Prior knowledge:
By secondary structure, the chain is of the alpha/beta class. It has a single domain, classed as DsrEFH-like (Hypothetical Protein Ychn, Chain: A, 3-Layer(aba) Sandwich). Helices cover 32% and strands 18% of the residues. Strands 1-2-3 form a 3-stranded parallel beta sheet, with helices on one face. The radius of gyration is 11 Å and the shape is globular. The protein starts with a strand and ends with a strand. The relative contact order is 0.26.
Amino acid sequence: MITFILNYAPYGxxxxxxxxxxxxxxxKQKETIRIFLMDDGIVNGIQNQKTPDGYYNIxxxxxxxxxxxxxxxx
Length: 74
């Protein structure tokens, strides 16, 4: 099992997005993952966020993991 700890806000940099991209790639390779949102990373889990222009929708990525049964914790 691979654990991701997101402790950066979703926008302003691409750290959360890149972590979730890596997690998605590992899921495609049949790895088991779990995601923890901590510190400023909690903001990644807020629903109905307005995604700034030029950024990816982090909420949609997280919902995809949850929908597929992967653990996402705060």
